[in-house]
Design brief:
globular; single chain; about 625 residues; 27 helices; two-stranded antiparallel ribbon; mainly alpha
């Protein structure tokens, strides 16, 4: 391969040629391989604890192990069949009217059971230290709104596949074929109606922060007893509701929550309960529940996958119980210190770039520097384990434990009402193989999961670490100044802090990035430059930050930087997976992501003597510098 025409393939082709997807794999890359390695490690350790009865004490692991033992008891699960969830299912099936339904809303909410009310607590955008109530919109069955269009042939094919798969699943719960078909048809009819009122491709917060007084909001859905609902949930009456999906609430919610559509609501509730519990019953039901997803992604759905199912289920339900233990096992104090120093170095470089930017006003520079000074950086994992008041018991079945966890989780979430938001809480697991920025808390999180090979190692050279975890850190920091980040201040409150002159500057940059990526295609698929906008901005700004540091301090290491960065994103993937990623993910496909970033760099063009006739060439006047 010629690196002047396709640098990504020139660097990664040998790795790609030596890799092959297993029948149950959608893709293979550094992230998925590390995830698999972590899963294998957990599986070995947990099985060892389980068999020996000897497990690490004082880490809050008791509930995790109890749940894992219940999930692993296939004999009991097969013997019980669907019986454990029949009382829950019967509750929904016995709702005879919309009146029956609304009389149980708050009880279902506090039990953590589906009720189709999309309320949740989150920091108030205008005051990130306070929780407020947000009203989203009910979710859809399919991952993309366009699938519900009558003109979408792919959506029509997807629907037919879904109907065939899910009909067999529903019949396992005692429904006849006609009953199952009726429920599924009603779910799709309701989803199709709902999809017309949901916002598509809304890539930033503009238009999402719509404040309604509680009384005005209640008038949008007169059939819902919201005063009683919130009195039961938080023992209070909220003064305001934040409405991100305004079109749904103003134009459709009064019809959605009404006797007129009750039979459709009921169908969606019943379907929701069945799919919610399908992974914790019999093996046959688990395979049927996974069948549609497997067909969608082009992977095999075999009984071999059931071996990993108890661990996967336990991890999904109680994964956070492993946070503290995994952090302490996998990351040394030296590693934490090294990553902290690397992060501080990148922040310092970011500050230097901002100070040197002659296009920004002094006031905007001060705001950016202030935001960087107040950035919370979480490394590794939480500083203490989780201890629950109510312990799980082996005397109960798996579904009972799930119900206890759902209820305790719901109560915990709603108990935050009236309390201050903590920027120190861990929102993700310590073994997550990724890094995150939270705009509403002005915080980046670097879990222990990502702080190991091939992303970071104290055995790597400084340049290799900078090229890999360093880029990811710079990328996440850059989200503080993307189309969303520029709307939040140093504490995560929604505030318009860009100077008017700098708004115009930033809008020009946004337009350039949209134009650059909107014109791209990859393997026959069009790239959406709007839905990928924030990630593309963070990529360009983060890459530039790391590259500038290397140019200044280690110019002789540029080639190592470009190669190590490119290796970070190597991937093989199924076409079905690629289709889904392009439709639903806010990131570019990896190959496109790498080559576009490199060709946006004049230093890269000069280092490898890229000429105008080469595919990696990009005219300097088309190269974008964000900050």
């Amino acid at each position: 391969m010629d690196y002047k025409n396709d640098f990504y393939s020139a660097i990664n082709q040998q790795w790609i040629n030596n890799k092959q997807l297993a029948d149950n794999q959608t893709h293979l890359d550094n992230f998925s391989e590390l995830n698999a390695s972590i899963d294998d490690y957990f599986s070995r350790e947990i099985n060892k604890w389980f068999k020996s009865g000897n497990y690490p004490k004082n880490y809050g692991l008791e509930d995790f192990l109890t749940f894992y033992q219940q999930a692993s008891d296939f004999e009991k699960r097969e013997r019980l069949g669907v019986n454990p969830i029949l009382p829950i299912l019967n509750r929904y099936q016995s709702m005879n009217s919309f009146k029956d339904y609304i009389s149980q809303l708050s009880e279902l909410e506090l039990l953590g059971q589906p009720n189709l009310l999309p309320f949740h607590l989150a920091p108030d955008l205008l005051n990130a230290t306070e929780y407020t109530i947000w009203a989203e919109a009910p979710g859809l069955t399919f991952p993309d709104i366009s699938f519900y269009s009558s003109h979408n042939k792919q959506g029509e094919s997807l629907l037919n596949t879904w109907l065939q798969c899910q009909k067999k699943l529903l019949q396992e719960f005692g429904l006849s074929e006609s009953e199952a078909t009726d429920i599924l048809n009603k779910v799709i009819i309701l989803d199709t109606k709902l999809s017309k009122y949901l916002v598509t491709n809304q890539s930033n917060f503009e238009g999402r922060y719509n404040i309604y007084s509680f009384d005005d909001f209640c008038r949008l859905v007169p059939e819902l007893p919201l005063k009683k609902f919130f009195k039961n949930i938080i023992n209070d009456t909220p003064t305001v509701i934040i409405v991100p999906e305004e079109s749904f609430w103003t134009d459709f919610a009064s019809k959605f929550y009404s006797q007129e559509l009750w039979e459709y609501l009921k169908a969606k509730l019943i379907y929701g309960i069945i799919t919610m519990y399908s992974s914790c019953l019999t093996n046959k039901i688990k395979l049927l529940a996974d069948k549609f997803r497997c067909k969608l992604l082009g992977i095999d759905n075999t009984e071999e996958s059931l071996k990993q199912a108890p661990y996967d289920l336990t991890q999904f339900i109680l994964g956070k119980d492993l946070n503290y233990w995994y952090f302490k096992q996998s990351l040394s104090s030296k590693d934490v210190k090294n990553v902290k120093e690397l992060t501080n170095t990148i922040i310092s470089k970011y500050k230097s770039k901002i100070i040197a930017n002659d296009s920004l006003t002094l006031e905007t520079k001060r705001e950016i520097l202030n935001k960087l000074d107040n950035l919370v950086v979480q490394i590794g994992g939480p500083d203490q384990p989780i201890f629950r008041k109510r312990k799980l018991s082996l005397e109960e079945c798996l579904v009972d434990s799930i119900n206890h966890i759902l209820e305790s989780t719901a109560l915990l979430e709603w108990s935050k009402w009236g309390k201050k938001v903590s920027r120190k809480d861990w929102e993700i697991t310590s073994f997550t193989v990724d890094a995150y920025y939270n705009a509403q808390l002005n915080k980046i999180t670097l879990p222990a999961g990502i702080l190991q090979k091939p992303f970071y190692s104290n055995e790597y050279s400084f340049i290799k670490n900078l090229s890999r975890i360093g880029f990811l850190i710079a990328h996440e920091i850059s989200h503080a100044f993307d189309i969303d980040g520029t709307l939040f201040d140093e504490y995560g409150s929604y505030r318009d802090w860009l100077d008017e002159k700098d708004k115009k500057y930033f809008q020009i940059k946004i337009k350039q990035v949209k134009h650059k990526y909107n014109n791209l295609t990859f393997k026959g698929f069009n790239i959406n430059g709007i839905s990928t906008l924030s990630e593309n901005i963070a990529d360009i700004a983060g890459f530039s930050c790391v590259e500038d540091f290397i140019v200044t301090e280690f110019p002789e290491k540029l080639r190592e930087f470009y190669c190590e960065f490119t290796k970070l994103w190597r991937i093989i993937e199924r076409e079905e997976y690629l289709k889904m990623i392009i439709l639903t993910d806010s990131h570019l496909p990896n190959k496109l992501r790498v080559n576009q970033l490199l060709s946006n760099s004049q230093k890269f063009i000069e280092t490898y003597q890229i000429l105008e006739r080469n595919n990696m060439w990009n005219d300097p006047k088309n190269q974008i510098i964000i900050w």
